[in-house]
Every structure is written in C-alpha cells, then in structure tokens.
Write a structure and sequence with these properties.
3 strands; globular; sensory transduction; three-stranded mixed beta sheet; GPCR_Rhodpsn_7TM
Length: 318
C-alpha cells in the first residue's frame, strides 16, 4: 500500500464500492448483480446474433440495434465483472494502469453510444417522414459510415477525457467511493486544483450529450408532426410503438449520464453516485434488449426462431 502521508505518488487505487456493507448484504448483491449481468449478456448476445444472421432483420434499424447491443456488452464487461470480484474478495485495489484503462473504455463506449442513439433517431425520422427515399438515404454504405463515425468519436474523445482526468499527479487519498474508476471522483483525488479538469469534462459532456440530444429532439419533433398529420389512428399507433422503444432507451441512458458528468461535484456523494452508476453500467444495458424485444414483433419472432434452431440442434446432437 502506498504511504500517502509522506507525499508519495499514488500507484494504485482502492475501490470502496460496497465495502462498508455487511457480508450478508454483499452476498445478496453478488447474486443480484450476477443475475443481472448474466441476463444482460444473454439478451444482448441474442440481439447481436439475430440482427447479424436473420435475413428478415436486414434493415438499418436492426443494423444499428445490433451495434447498440455490442456497445452494451462492451460497457458492462468493462465494469461489472470487477465489481462482482470485489464483492467476494477483501482486496479492492486496482493498479493505476488498470484504472486508466477502465476509464478510457468507459469514455470510448459511452460516447459512441451517445452518438449511435442520435443516429438511430435520425434513422426513424427518415423511415417515417421520407419512406419513399428511405432505402436510398439509409443505404448500407451510409449505415456503416454512421456506425464508424460513432466509434471514431468515441475513441478520439476518450483520449481527450483520459488526458484531462490524469493530467495531474495523484498524491492524496487513493480511495474511490464507487465500484469502478469514474472520472469526476478520480479527478477530485488528484494533486493541485482539479477544477480545470472538471470544467473541461463538464464542457465536453455538454457537447457529447447535448449535441446528439438536439438531433434526437429535432428528429422526434418532426416525427411527431408527421404522425399528427395522419388521419389513420392505426398508423399513428404503429408509428408511436416503433419510436417508443428508442425513446425509452434514450431517457434511461441520458438521465444517468447527465447526472454523473454534468452535475456540480457538490451535489455528488457515494449515496447518490452509486445508484446512477448502476443505472447506466448495468440496468440500462440489461433493459435495452428487453425494451426493444417486448415492443417489436419482428425481434420477438427472430428470437423465437433463433432459440428454436438452437433447441433443434441440441436435440439432433443427442
């Protein structure tokens, strides 16, 4: 353990997480989070499989959905397995490099998902407001470029955020009051004045979160105007149902992300940070495939076909 009293540089951090909880509470949390993690991995894995293999889901909406599920798998794998391990072992230390790597992956995947959600809203706008030109506007080439753009900005923005988080040395307390290395908490532990880094991350969050949100709001405002202009109530209901899944996912993800990265540090604390961290690290990735599958007959049908093929293959192997 690094002796912080003599000004030594921090080379490792301690993730406090649920350390203060009783052993029975930690065991209960381990079982709960393991079940949620397994469900999230299984559901997102199934979404990835059916969107990439089922020819009936060969459309831009499902192409984006498959990549959203892939991002969710990356997101939960970056944080949750480590938390599960720390719930059953006493050693909660992580190396400086491990913390840096985890933060970069969270930044990269989180930013990519923000941008991808905006592109998914644009896809729904084109499909509903310009149906005759949909295939031409949202061609496969365009969809690949949009997904690549989301990943590119995630990778580049992650480097910037990583630099701002670790630009100062660490020689204070090395206890992180969360179950993973979250940027605002880590920056507050650095030497000197962390306000510049926090302000830069806040400014970056405004751009990364609010810019895609503007595109989402504009897309759905035009969709709403188009829906209200239709005379058929059945057509309205079908269109609302198609968009409701995406809107639900957007609200879940953006609410938790905005609280974590756009709130003043004075409003933060372990009791407030952990619930929102859990919301966007495990609850949202778990809910995304459930929300889409429950409200989409095509996805449910593809899931049934995929599970049916798996059961048949197992039966034949026996």
């Amino acid at each position: 353990m690094v002796d912080l009293r003599n000004g030594s540089t921090v080379t490792e951090f301690i993730l406090v997480g649920f350390e203060q909880s009783s052993s029975s509470t930690r065991a209960l949390l381990f079982a709960l989070f393991l079940a949620l993690y397994s469900l999230a991995m299984a559901m997102n894995g199934l979404i990835i499989f059916i969107t990439w293999t089922d020819p009936r889901l060969n459309s831009p909406m499902y192409f984006f959905l498959g990549h959203l599920s892939f991002l969710d798998v990356c997101f939960i794998t970056t944080t949750i397995p480590q938390m599960l391990i720390h719930l059953v072992v006493k050693n909660h230390t992580v190396s400086f490099v491990s913390c840096l790597t985890q933060m970069y992956l969270v930044f990269c995947v989180g930013v990519a998902e923000c941008i991808l959600l905006a592109f998914m809203a644009y896809d729904r706008y084109v499909a509903i407001c310009h149906p005759l030109s949909y295939a031409q506007i949202m061609s496969q080439h365009v969809c690949v470029r949009l997904v690549s753009t989301a990943w590119f900005f995630g990778l580049i923005n992650g480097i910037f955020l990583e630099y701002m988080s670790f630009r100062n040395p660490f020689c204070r307390d090395n206890h992180i009051e969360n179950f993973f290395c979250e940027a605002p908490i880590v920056i507050a532990l650095s030497c000197g004045d962390p306000q510049f880094s926090l302000k830069m991350i806040f400014a970056d969050a405004i751009v990364v979160l609010l810019s895609p949100m503007v595109l989402i709001v504009i897309s759905y405002a035009r969709i709403l105007a188009s829906i209200l202009g239709r005379t058929s109530s059945s057509g309205r209901g079908k269109t609302f149902s198609t968009c409701a899944s995406h809107l639900t996912v957007v609200i879940f993800f953006y609410t938790s992300a905005m609280f974590s990265y756009m709130n003043p540090r004075s409003t933060h604390g372990p009791d407030k940070d952990k619930p929102f961290s859990l919301l966007y690290t495990i609850i949202t990735p778990m809910c995304n495939p459930i929300i889409y599958s429950f409200r989409n007959k095509e996805v449910k049908g593809a899931m049934v076909r995929a599970l049916g093929r798996t059961s048949l293959a197992q039966a034949e192997s026996i």
